[in-house]
């Protein structure tokens, strides 16, 4: 585990679900996307093809479970999935609920805002998503 990798460390995270191979967290540092989760593979690998087939299936199943739970709780206009890793080369997936009233919609959450966000998300959406993830595990 590289000491400089922020995804290898689990400091101060809101963990929604985890097992010995991966964890699903709520992301709080993205004001453009207030309903944002990350599925993080625990082992420090950079690419999906660094994993054996069974592990690839496991992480993708977790991404799909996260998407389904977020859709059920939040009713977004769209879910964005992304696996970038250019800045942090540790395998992880972004699962981002998008709303027509969010600051950047329909552009990427990393684009310049088009408007002030006008969202009314359930205050306990993270707890609700965590409960659904636990029920599906």
From TrEMBL:
> Pfam families given for it?
HIT (PF01230)
Q: Which InterPro entries match?
A: HIT-like, HIT-like_sf, HIT_Hint
Residue ranges annotated as motif Histidine triad motif: 90-94
Report the superkingdom from the record. Bacteria
Every HIT domain range: 3-105
Under the heading Gene3D superfamilies, the entry gives:
HIT-like
Name used for this protein in its record: HIT family protein
Origin organism of this chain? Eikenella glucosivorans
- Species lineage, top-down? Bacteria, Pseudomonadati, Pseudomonadota, Betaproteobacteria, Neisseriales
């Amino acid at each position: 585990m590289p000491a400089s990798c922020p995804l290898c460390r689990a400091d101060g995270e809101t963990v929604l679900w985890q097992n010995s191979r991966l964890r699903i967290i709520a992301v709080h540092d993205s004001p453009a996307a207030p309903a944002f989760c990350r599925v993080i593979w625990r082992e420090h690998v950079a690419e999906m093809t660094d994993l054996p087939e069974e592990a690839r299936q496991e992480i993708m199943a977790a991404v799909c479970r996260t998407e389904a739970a977020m859709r059920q709780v939040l009713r977004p206009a769209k879910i964005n999935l992304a696996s970038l890793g250019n800045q942090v080369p540790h395998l992880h997936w972004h699962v981002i609920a998008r709303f027509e009233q969010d600051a950047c919609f329909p552009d990427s959450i990393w684009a310049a805002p088009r408007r002030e966000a006008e969202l009314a998300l359930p205050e306990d959406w993270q707890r609700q998503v965590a409960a659904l993830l636990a029920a599906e595990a």
